[in-house]
Amino acid sequence: MSGTETVEPDLQALIRHIQESRGVDFRGYKKSSLRRRIQRRMEEVGIDGFAAYHAFLEAHPDEFPALLNTVLINVTSFFRDPEAWEALRSDVVPRLVERIGETGQLRIWSVGCATGEEPYSLAMAFAEVLGPDACNRLKIYATDLDEDALRTARQATYTPRDVEGVPPDLLARYFDRTPNHYVLQRELRKCVIFGRHNVVHDAPIIRIDLLVCRNLLIYLETDTQNQVLPRLHYALADDGLLFLGKAETQLARSRLFEAVDLKHRIFRKVPQGWRRSHGGSVTFAGPPATLGPGRAPTLHQRLLEALADGTAQAYLAVDNDGVLVFANPASRRLLEVGEGDLGRPFQDLAISYRPVELRSRIDEASRSGRAVRLEHLEYQHPPASPVRLTIDVTPLFARDGLQFATLLGFSDTTRAWTLQQELEAAQESLETTIEELQSANEELETTNEELQSTNEELETTNEELQSTNEELETMNEELRSTNDELEAANEELRLRQEETTEFRRHMDGVLRSMDAGIIVLDPSLKVRSWNRWNEAVWGLRAEEVVDRQALELDIGLPLEPLRSDMQRVLSGQVDHAETTIAAVDRRGRGLKCRVRISPLLYETAGPRGVVLIVEDVTEARQDQDYARYLGRILGHSLNEVYFLDPETLRFILVNRGGEQKLGQSIAQLRRIPFTDLLVGVSSLAFRAMLAPLLAGEVQELVVEAVLHRTDEAGGPAERPVEMCLQYFGDEMPPLLVAILHDIADRRRLTGEADRVAAPP
User: Fold this and answer.
1) CA–CA separation, 233 and 569 (whole Å)
2) Domain named PAS: which ranges (predicted)?
3) What mean pLDDT comes out for the span 601-618?
4) pLDDT score, position 96
5) Are 576 and 569 spatial neighbours (Cβ–Cβ below 8 Å)?
6) I need a labelling partner for 672 at 20 to 30 A (CA). Which of 174, 335, 432, 627 fits?
7) What digits encode the pLDDT tens for the residues 194-241?
8) 246-305 pLDDT, tens per residue?
């Protein structure tokens, strides 16, 4: 991933103008953050476009302080991120004080100090350990780009809100209280030296024991970060410590520092020991012994040969005349250098200029006397895939300190390079996300601090007029109270809005779940609501019909015949109207729809519209027709069908066949229980027989019995029947149905058959 962002020409010209006019160099800042901060200031002055703002700056030079105050995010506080500061106070400060002894002096550098809270926090932390002599043994250099912020820092005067992060004991020990401010004690202020400094371009302060650079690197581009980190490394004394912000993770992959406390971003400088001999490079212990006739190689020589032959790293050696004098087996495999190439000028070999021109690097290593490293160079090696090589060019010196050859080491770092790219991409993405979150948070804090700064300026200007100041404070309190009331009202409105939204969602869900069409019309009969049932049946979506005249809709439901009923409901002549009309759904299927027209009523009097509830009663109408048809069939059937009350066993309904067989009308039968017609069976016995049926233990009960009846002459008679009894307990009211068949003929035939079959 590239460390530099593409910048619009207009923005680039604006940045260059700021640098030339005010000497503030933003070239290393992340352009996304810089663009966002400048655009914020442009919105405040009501200007669109970087070119227009550039012209505005040229015409109004007094705009520069406000712009720089917006771009340079001076968001800081005492002991910001308390957990990290506690780790610094408990682990780092005592260790540094112990290292300098009783007479040494500590040098500390606070980079990007803003309005001074950070260096003064350092001064208090070290004063707690150094004691009364702290000012003589402690020097804190505090630097920043913003001159206005530095002027504020030198005054060391803070509001009660500014010192909220200071522990109470330190606040009482190191601050003097004025009516409206806290002022750091003069003796402790002497320890801190403020100055303007650009860490990207200015020379660093050196021999620093502790360097604090918190939440600065996140605003710099990757290339600029890679430029700043070596400067910070150079500034630190050996074994010096670096204290970063919690959002800065650049050192997780840097070889210049090692973690002391990674969680709290405390790192130690790693000294770079690439000078390992007097000549500045690797020096052999001595020249190899010359083998005479019959002499075996020494152990030293055998070890060197085994190392050269067995290592996976490719090595070439070039003497001072530029001739290739050594190539190990790995180099012959990787670099296609054969035995015939030994003794040839190195410049004639392809490896001397591919993947990179190496002769100048050999000259550079020879001149400087130190190794030169070329990392992750792409090397084409057909037909194999390209690989990444790291090349170390190391001058070799004899005991007399004179160079006798140059060693070229080729390492295949393809996997390491790939992992590094993936890690850097992930790291860059994470840093960008953290930066954006931090920037948003800091912008909110900056906005709040700007409001407080305005109030503080008023307080500072009117310190001599205390009564006026108190009136302003009173007004401020009233404004805060009003603001609280507005916030409370806003919160109440928000809650009501949420309740309204939830209620609307609930009503929409109810309308969607209803198995009927709901059409809401306003007084002019325009559609205001159209639920999902209507969409499915009539084929028009809600957005296609809302605000249209209902009577003009091209759907299969004729609404024109309902106009008069709707007008009567709207005028209040009737409470509601109901009718059944024929309709055709979107598939062409004929429907019978029952339409109920009701007024749409609010809390105020008078209808505000009408609500049409459309139900598909096609199947219900068919069911009713079928039920009537079935009733006619059963009513005229010659089989006896009796509907009985399960409790009293009295007749409820009797079909025509039952009246004829019993010889009595339904009015007569309703006055007697069914058990009065049974011959030889008491009411108790019949109820005991019905008990399993009524309890649901059996579905039907088939028995034979003898019934009383009135014969054709009007006299009493008896007849055998077969009864099929069924209980319908789920009906309202429950029913006991008895279906009877006359079995007199069957018994007669059975008797005759028995006589025929009997022996004579």
Assistant:
1) 87
2) 503-573
3) 84
4) 92
5) yes
6) 627
7) 999 988 888 889 999 999 998 788 777 777 787 788 889 989 998 899
8) 877 666 556 788 889 888 889 999 875 433 332 222 222 333 334 344 445 567 667 777
What pLDDT, on a 0 to 100 scale, did the predictor assign at position 277?
Answer: 30
Structural tokens at position 214:
């918190």
- pLDDT at 4 (0 to 100): 53
Q: Is the pLDDT of residue 59 over 60?
A: yes
Contacts for 230 with CB less than 8 Å, ≥ 6 apart: 256
Between 298 and 127, where is the model more confident?
Answer: 127
DSSP 562-624: GHHHHHHHHTTSSS-EEEEEEEE-TTS-EEEEEEEEEEEE-SSSSEEEEEEEEEE-HHHHHHH
User: For 503, phi and psi rounded to 5 degrees?
Assistant: -65, -40
- What distance in Å separates the CA atoms of residue 446 and residue 449, rounded to the nearest whole number? 5
The residue type at 256: L
Taking only the tens place, the pLDDT of each residue in 16-54 is: 887 777 666 676 677 777 788 788 888 888 888 888 888
Backbone angles phi, psi at 723, to 5 degrees: -105, 130
What are the CA-CA distances from residue 246 to residues 96, 172, 217, 220, 505 (Å)?
22, 29, 11, 16, 43
Which of 438-447, 557-566, 626-635 holds the top average pLDDT? 557-566
Q: Which residue has the tokens 């410049």?
A: 347
Query: Whole-angstrom Cα distance, residue 507 to residue 307?
Result: 83
As beta bridge partners, residue 258 has 268
pLDDT digits (tens, 9 = 90+) for 448-477: 666 776 676 676 676 667 777 778 888 888
Say how far apart CA 374 and CA 389 lie, in whole Å. Answer: 8
Give the SS3 label for residue 52.
helix
| Pairing assessment for the beta strands 192-196 and 138-144 based on DSSP bridges | parallel
Q: Tokens for 478, please give them.
A: 């009233």
Considering only residues 566 and 286, tell me which one the structure prediction assigns the higher pLDDT: 566
Contact 223, 3 (CB under 8 A): yes
Is residue 709 a contact partner of residue 717, using CB atoms and an 8 Å limit? yes
**Token pair of 419 as six digits:** 């992992």
Residue 216's identity, in one-letter code, is L
- Does residue 183 have a pLDDT over 90? yes
441 in Cβ contact with 225 (< 8 Å): no
For residue 102, the model assigns a pLDDT of 83
Per DSSP, 160 falls in state T
State whether residue 727 is helix, strand or coil. Answer: strand
156-to-43, 183, 242, 501 alpha-carbon distances in Å: 32, 6, 25, 52
Task: Find all residues with CB under 8 Å of 499, minimum gap 6, and list them.
Answer: none
Q: Confirm if 740 and 658 have CB atoms less than 8 A apart.
A: yes
Q: What is the per-residue DSSP string for 161-222?
A: TGGGGS-HHHHHHHEEE-SS-EEE-HHHHTTEEEEE--TTTSPPP-SEEEEEE-SSGGGB-H
φ/ψ of residue 402, rounded to 5: -95, 140
The stretch 503-524 carries a mean pLDDT of 82
Contact 634, 590 (CB under 8 A): no
Q: pLDDT value at position 310?
A: 78
Structure tokens that stand for 6 in this block: 């593409």
Coil, helix or strand for 108? strand
* Cα–Cα dist 318/337, whole Å: 13
Cα separation of 362 and 374, whole Å? 12
Helix (H, G, I), strand (E, B), or coil: what is residue 109? strand
> Rounded distance, CA 514 to CA 530, Å?
12
| Residue 628: partners with Cβ closer than 8 Å, 6 or more residues away | none
Q: How confident is the model at residue 710 (pLDDT cuts 50, 70, 90)?
A: low
CB contact at 8 A, 470 and 289: no
**Bond into 287 cis (ω within 30):** no
| Element spanning 264, H or E | none
Distance CA 620, CA 593 (A): 10
